[in-house]
């Protein structure tokens, strides 16, 4: 394709180029192996998203990101602000997983699990049920406004808005207990932030899935722009077999292909009509392709009707096409240095993170020394006061005891034992005494240890400073 300098484009060509993004795409409905998998992923992801918010665990919501209390609950695990490292690890794992999947099979996430793809599928299904199939929708949009058209459009958008608002409600339900949120919605007693995020997320869902659709994938999503950096000649992508398909041309089903000097492609353009981003896969790999496989499904159906072998459009690699590799040869090159490195690093990070979570102590300690001056008692001993911030990260109450060391004869004057409620923090005031002559004037290091009375293996220590006036 020849690329002309900008100044060589006519005004008409410029207008066509600039406003082409607003052209509406009408994907044709179809069935097939890849289509079935897309719908399986729609059901799987939405059952998790809409359903998990209603699950209970230990008398509370199973998955809850309680920003007000600064606690994240994920089933039996409670994350605190001090556990921010796990969020960073989760982001690293997500990025490496994306790199690995992309290196192996292109934009699998985009085609099957991306929220934009999933909600676009849902909204297009609603549209087809209300307005009809592709041809009926095109005729309806081209027709002038009428009572029937107004009614159908109104019903469609009302259903879209209902789904979008339910999606926004569910999203907020992961940050505010969803049962409490339900009562607040029913009683029209929503707080300003809950109201804002329900409407904002609902509007984003309605706008992206109902109106923008493929525009998000083509022009807004950054992944479409840098995906090629993760592709190589052994990456599985949806590909048109040009050697087999060209030259393309229409013919009857009974025609002898060898006598016509034509390829297998009958130029039916169904691959374009089913594409959710409106591209022609026969023009080669394009950044707009989300790897959904719709074109492969419809092309296989055409090949079946023509009694041609399937696979004119299929998941394959550039090396497979140029070197005529078998399926075994294709999969043999999947385990190449790039994917092995990604897999190894990903596996190590997941294993280390899982071990860290499994071995994580349900106890955290922070020691703050009182700002007041040390007190010298009548017997010559010196007293320092501290505040121990003790955090019980488990959802069961625990009893703890405090020990102190680091200076000969150092002891705790106040009570040693205390209890901390489930998943909560307690401030414990502690008075520490050092007898006269046991330490040099100035500052000395001491060590506080908080130990679980019921499980001696659970303990945590924290350093502090003991001051003795000069």
Provide an overview of this structure.
With 470 residues, the protein is α+β, with helices and mostly antiparallel strands. It has three domains: 21-52 and 106-228, no CATH class; 234-325, no CATH class; 363-468, Immunoglobulins (Immunoglobulin-like, Sandwich), CATH 2.60.40.10. Helix content is 44%, strand content 19%. It has 18 helices and 16 strands. The chain has helices spanning 11-19, 33-52, 84-105, 108-112, 115-131, 134-142, 147-172, 178-186, 192-212, 214-220, 223-226, 242-245, 257-260, 270-273, 294-306, 318-323, 327-332, 337-359, and strands spanning 56-57, 60-61, 63-66, 71-74, 77-79, 237-240, 313-316, 363-369, 375-376, 382-392, 398-405, 411-412, 417-420, 424-434, 442-452, 459-468. Strands 8, 9, 10, 12 and 14 form a five-stranded antiparallel beta sheet that branches. The chain has a four-stranded antiparallel beta sheet with strand order 13-11-15-16, with no helix packed on it. It has a three-stranded antiparallel beta sheet with strand order 3-4-5, with no helix packed on it. Helix 3 (84-105) packs antiparallel against helix 18 (337-359) and helix 7 packs across helix 9 (192-212). The protein is elongated, with a radius of gyration of 32 Å. The N and C termini lie far apart (86 Å). Residues 1-7 have low confidence and may be disordered.
